[in-house]
Structure formats: C-alpha cells, structure tokens
Amino acid sequence: MSKSIKLAILGLGTVGTGVVNLINDNLDELKRRSGCNIMISAVGTRRQRDDIDPAITQSDDLMAIAASDDVDIVIEVIGGTTLAKDIITHAIRHGKHVVTANKALLAEHGNEIFALAEENKVHVAYEAAVAGGIPIIKVMREALAANKVNWLAGIINGTGNFIMTEMRDKGRTFDDVLAEAQALGYAEADPTFDVEGIDAAHKLALLASIAFGIPLQFDKVYCEGITGITLQDVNYAEELGYRIKHVGFAVRHQDDNNIASGIELRVHPTLIPEDKLLANVNGVKNAVLVDSHPLGQTLYYGDGAGAGATASAVMADVMDLVRVLCTNEQGHHVPHLAFIPEELSDTPILDAEQMTTGYYLRVHAYDSPGVLANITRILSEAGINIDAILQKPAHKAGQVPVIILTLPVVESQMNSAIAKIEALDTITDKVVRIRLDEL
Amino acid sequence: MSKSIKLAILGLGTVGTGVVNLINDNLDELKRRSGCNIMISAVGTRRQRDDIDPAITQSDDLMAIAASDDVDIVIEVIGGTTLAKDIITHAIRHGKHVVTANKALLAEHGNEIFALAEENKVHVAYEAAVAGGIPIIKVMREALAANKVNWLAGIINGTGNFIMTEMRDKGRTFDDVLAEAQALGYAEADPTFDVEGIDAAHKLALLASIAFGIPLQFDKVYCEGITGITLQDVNYAEELGYRIKHVGFAVRHQDDNNIASGIELRVHPTLIPEDKLLANVNGVKNAVLVDSHPLGQTLYYGDGAGAGATASAVMADVMDLVRVLCTNEQGHHVPHLAFIPEELSDTPILDAEQMTTGYYLRVHAYDSPGVLANITRILSEAGINIDAILQKPAHKAGQVPVIILTLPVVESQMNSAIAKIEALDTITDKVVRIRLDEL
After folding, report:
1. What sequence ranges are listed for the domain ACT (chains A, B) (predicted)?
2. Does B169 lie in the same domain as B30?
3. Any idea what DSSP says for residue B82?
4. Which of A85, A96, A138, A203 is catalytic?
C-alpha cells in the first residue's frame, strides 16, 4: 500500500474548485506520476458545498484546518493579504508545507513568510502566483539554475493584454474593452490592480527576486498602467511596425567586472516590434521572455489565469512536495527565492530616472515653419537619437501630431528634453510618451 | 565550509567545453543557488588540453573516471551509442549519478539504462537530450505533473528548421541551404540524422514517454524527413497562408471512457497556419507546444542546440542533483520517465495508416476538361473533405498543378484515394503530398 499525502484546500472559489476538479479528473495520473496516494482531507469554505465528496471534512474554521494533524500540505487559495497571511503563518508554525497562488501576499510579505518557513523547515510553494499555468517559477529557480540572468520581459497580466489586443485588433477604445472584460469575468469589478499595473508589479517583484537573488522589493517597482493608452497611439505604433503591450521588465546592470551594479524593475506599456514573439502574445495569454548566459533567450507561453491553468500550477507544486514526502525525506531542496537565503544580494534597485528605454513621443504643434527643427534640435542637444519620425496631416485646424521614435535613452535625459519641448511656443499640448523596447 | 560536489566531464567537444566554460563563468551563481561547492575533479579527453585548470585530472581512461571515488556526478557528452553506453552503465554500477545529452543512446537504450539506474539508486538526467536549452524535460516531468497530456507538437531539430526557414524566407533550394548549414556547423558532414528526421524521432520518443507514461519506443516512431520538400511546395503553401515546418507529434487517442487507446508518434514535414506561434519559430530555434488538461496549451521556445544552450541544460540537471546531494539525502525524486516504473502503460503505438492529419496535395494533370471534377469526385467518395483548392496556370505545356488542402483524414483513406487519382489517364506524375496540422 503506497503512502498517502493529505491536502487541505482553503478557499473554494474559482481556483479552489479548479483544484478539486483537477484531482477528480486526473487522480490516476497523479498516482502514476508520484507512486503515492493523494487525497483531499479537508476543504475550508464559508458555506457547506453539496458537490464535494462527503468523506472530505468541510469547515469554515480555516485556522483549525491549517493546523490539523490530518493535513500534510495546506493549499491557500482565498487571496488577499490579511486572513491569508494569518493562515499561512499558522500552517507554517504547525509544520505544514504550503502551496499558494497569492502573488500580492508574497510580493508584499514574502521575505517574512519565507524566513518563517526556513525556520520551521517547511516549503511555501508559489508557482501559481506568477503567469498562471506557465511554469515560470520552476523554470527560473531550477531549469535556469546554472545561468546568469541578464534580463526578463513578461506579459504577466492577462486582463491588460486582453484590453491592448482588442484595442489593436478591433479598433475599440480602452473603456469599451474594459467593460467587456468585466462582463466576461477577466477583470474584477474594481479593475485597479490590473489596469494600473499593480498585479503585474507583484508578479515582477517575485520574478526579479528569483532571477537575480535579491530580496522581494515590490515597493521599488516602477509601475505604470494602461489607462492612458489611446487608440490613436495604438494606431500610430501599428503604422510604424510596433504593437503596444503592457510588459514587466527586470534588467540587471553590471559594472566593468560583470558585478551587478543595479537592477531595473519596471512595469509599463511599451512598443515592441511586430515581428517579435512577445508582440504576438494576444488576448488573455501570458508569456515571459528570459535572456540569460549562456543559454540565450527562451520564451514561456500559455494561459496566465483561469481555473484550469491555476489549478495545474498549484498541483505541480503539490506534486513536487509529494514526490519528496513519499520518500520519507525532509522537504524541498530548492531555495524559496532560488538562491540560498544567506546569498541574497543587496544590489540596488534603480530609480525610474536611471532607467533606459527607447521612447514613442506624440507631440502636438501649431503647423508653423521650424517646429520640427526645434524639436529635433532639443532632442539632439540632449543626446537623444531619433529612430523614426511620422508627421501626419493636421486633424485639428492648425495642429499636427508629430510621432517620434527614439533610440534608448536614460529617463532623466528624456524628462528634461520633454520639458524643453513643452516650453516651445508652438507646442499646444503635453507630450504623450510611451516607452519602447526593441527586445 | 559548505559541502563539495565533484563532477567528471567525459568528452571535451563543443558541449563538454561549453560545460567547462559555464562553470568558469557562473561559479559564483552556482554556489549562490545551491549553497554548495561545485567543482570539476576530472575531464575525460583523448588529448591533453592546455586550457584546462591544472588542478583538474585529465585522462583518456574514461571508464576509470566514471568509476572514480573522486567523482559524484558523471557528465557524458561524448555522444554515440556504443562507448557512451558502456561508460554510463559502468558509472551507474559504481553508484554515480549521470547527466547526459545523448538522445540517440536514451531513445534506443533508455529503458535498460533507467532500469539499471533504479536498481542502483542513482539518477540519469537528460534535459540536454531534447530541445537543447529549452527545459522541456523538466517542464513535462515536473511542471505538468498534474496534467493529462493530450498531445504535443515540437520543432525539435534546429538544422531542419534552419533549412525550412531559409527556403521560405529567401527562396533558396534545399541543397543550397543544406550546404550552407554544413559550412556553418549546424549540420553534420553526414546530415542524415537531421534531414531524414531521425534526430527528431529520437527526441520525440523521449518526449512521448514522459508525456504519456509509456516505455521508450523509438522504433515505432513514423519518421519522414525534409529531403522531398521543394521550393515549389513551400511557395504554394505560403500562398495559401501556411508554412511548412518539420514537426514531431505525439498524440494520445482515447476511448469513450477517456482511457488511452493508442498513441500516434510521427515526425514529418507539415503545413501550419502562418499565424500560429509554431509557424513563426525560425532558423535554428526549437519550440514545443503542449496541450494538456486542465492547463490548456503552453509553448516553450529557445535555442535547440549550441554550446551555451546545451551546457545550460546539462548544468540544470547537475544543479537538481547538487541541491539534493548537499542535503545528505539519497537522490532524485522525479521518476526517470515522469511516471513511476511500475505504472508505465502498454498503450499501443498506432501504425502510420491509422494516423489522422490534413493533407496538402499537389497533382499534375493534363489540362483537359473534367480533370478537377474527377479528382474531387474521388476525394468525396473516399469521405475526404476539401478545405481549399488552388489551380495555377500551366507551367509546362499542357500541364497544370492543382493544389488541394484537405481536412483531417485517416492516412489509409488518403492512400487509397491517391492511388485512384494517380490511376487517372489525365494525371501525369505522382501526387505530391505533405501533411497539414491546423494546431
């Protein structure tokens, strides 16, 4: 008789129900792959559910389940950063391994939670916290374990990518698509976390930590959402051969001796050349592109959300634990943040002003002679190289938008150049700027 | 002082040298990620190398190194299926863990080698054997461990993909591109394994085994290379919105109770719609698309060959082992073929005649009235549905090629329909057929 591993699933929303369904559908597969009996011993839910096997304990006392002797692994899928934190802490203190999909909690309190887990010799696994069903945590922590990561770029918010895709494909406005995304259940009633980039910033903080071996530093992620992107800019970008995507970037800067000197953490809309794979990740799909040495670039693509994808990631973590627990050994061998805790480095996170990207600029000017000459002179004096210019016919009487793409430049330089452009008499509006990454 | 793990690298060709370079470049990263001292204690090479640290033993007695007390992990990168097999077997019998990039050896003798490893309680790791630096073995065995795999489709031979890409992009002939690939070092002097699909079939046998939990069955892979693909067909496919790629497919068939009833293993050129990601994997890049339940489709993309990519995969396997060995525990917890040995299933591998795909047909006929009617009648009587037809103007006096795309059909049905078409008086040549997968 093979050994049994008992799971508690705390929360029976979309993800929790997905996990229950996965176990029902694939129980045979799970046993064949682990040689072990995997069973749900308890579910934590506010109201009793008729569709759950009566042999499984149902209770609304989540803290009791988290500490129960009848549980080996606690799966936290209630979300939020308050009750979830208490439950996970309680489970860890009672020697339970924890699997969670909670990106906000880990991005904000992960350093503390992982330290507690080390202390109690348990593992807190979080594959489902980033990019849904794409196994990017395992890939970064294990598959790329021999590489030095140079940078990564990820489309890691499905709702945001759905909105950007619909705007481009169907010429719809931001507000229109957002309303549909809410109706379809992709976006929350309060879409702030998605459209302001906070959800992506949570995920980026986790990815950056395991890429570079630095503590979680969510508060240092530069974060810009997609609410300011207009159809006009989407169309101009298209005309120039680019697509606007909402992307999270983590970039390692190094000195002349290859020592990390700073890390760029930024989440923002950016123009990407249309023939790059990331530009062709559409709808609610996610993808992460990683550039590392000596491997080069690899890309990981799939569903970034949804019951099935998230359940797949949760249960992959469970399977990792089961495969170890079934051999009577002591736990997981992969460090929480990919690097051993005493080796996490204090490489500084760069300020937004120090970040380097190309730019898309949309400048509105009175159509007077010399305006373009003035703009290009200012850019040139600031050491900013122009890659492309598109001047469209006037769409308001006397006003013409000028679109300029620049080569990469440090943000502080661009800031001062834009201030000078906006000070010109002939400029009628604020300069619209969107970053641009050639990838 | 942290524990030391000693590596032996057997073979100092491109890959072996890549591994040495990786360790030199990233030693600090390896220690930070494992908390462990990783060192090369010996290299096996036919001739003494000056560029190797003199502290490292160099020897041409590979068998002695494989059994040395001064070695924890043996890295086999000599290739081939004879000496490599003896060395790996010898290392296993002496209790060494083995890391290998040898797809041919494992596809042909893996069942025996893995059984010996189980018996000796060591692990034989082979991430580098499939798709170079793309961590597809880890993904399939661990990240997708809770999923039921429905099918996978992979561009898993870089040389073949380079040839197909150049033919399409630059209108070059097969022979012309092959000569360049050989000059660039992508293709061997004897390119048979690449262009006849054998290398891809080796890799597909490994992928299918870990996808479905079946023993390795290389000899049952249906295998067709790219030597028959002409520029003409590449161009017709393009005109119809498809690209021709050389793809390996592993497809699970199931009965009404969702029980696996058969498995399709096939490697061949196929038409793919141009807007699919796999159609846009170009040059020497590899990619594997996996469809599984409940995860859905995920894609893994990167360099399928080269010193850096292969070394990355070899050392990822080493890191997995190091992380376990450093904690004084007994070994690797992931089954060699993803499923525990006693759970491997004997689901039959289907004959080529039972496989189902769409088809691209190129039929040359005298331009006489009624020829198209005859062809479509034959297809219709065979129950084959036509998806598209392209009839080009005559390029030889009196002859017109007719291009037909069909919906999926069982191969045996297509065989008999083609026999009837070829028997028509008006048909002047063999019918050219290439498979087509909408993906």
Report:
1. 360-439
2. no
3. S
4. A203
Q: Is residue B336 in some structural domain?
A: yes
**Catalytic one of B85, B96, B103, B203:** B203
Q: List, for residues B121-172, the tens digit of each pLDDT value.
A: 899 999 999 999 999 999 999 999 999 999 999 999 999 999 999 999 999 9
User: Is A350 among the domain residues?
Assistant: no
Residue of A nearest to B138 (CA): A143
Please enumerate in sequence order all residues whose Cβ is within 8 A of that of B234, keeping only pairs 6 or more positions apart, or say none: B164, B167, B168, B244
Domain count for chain B, please give it: 3
Mark yes or no for CB contact A335/B35 under 8 Å.
Answer: yes
Six token digits for residue B200? 């891809």
Same domain, B394 and B414: yes
Of A211, A215, A213, A216, nearest to A339 by C-alpha is: A213
Contact assessment for residue A169 and residue A244, using Cβ atoms and an 8 Å cutoff: no
Verify whether residue A121 is a known catalytic residue: no
Domain that holds residue B366: 355-436
- The β-bridge relationship of strands A242-254 and B57-59 is unpaired
User: What average pLDDT does range A48-57 have in this prediction?
Assistant: 92
> Is the Cβ pair A298, B302 closer than 8 Å?
yes
B interface mutation test: which of A9, A147, A209, A314 has the most B CBs within 10 A? A147
Query: Is omega for the bond preceding B335 within 30 degrees of 0, making it cis?
Result: no
pLDDT tens per residue, range A331-375: 456 777 777 777 777 778 878 788 889 999 999 888 766 888 899
Lowest mean pLDDT among A275-289, A326-340, A368-382, B342-356: A326-340
Same structural domain, B203 and B229: yes
Q: Which residues of A touch B134 (CB under 8 A)?
A: 298
* B56 and B193 in a common domain: no
Cβ count near B293 (within 10 Å): 17
Mean pLDDT is lowest, of A274-283, B137-146, B251-260, B263-272, for B251-260
Q: Tell if the CB–CB gap between B25 and A146 is shorter than 8 Å.
A: no
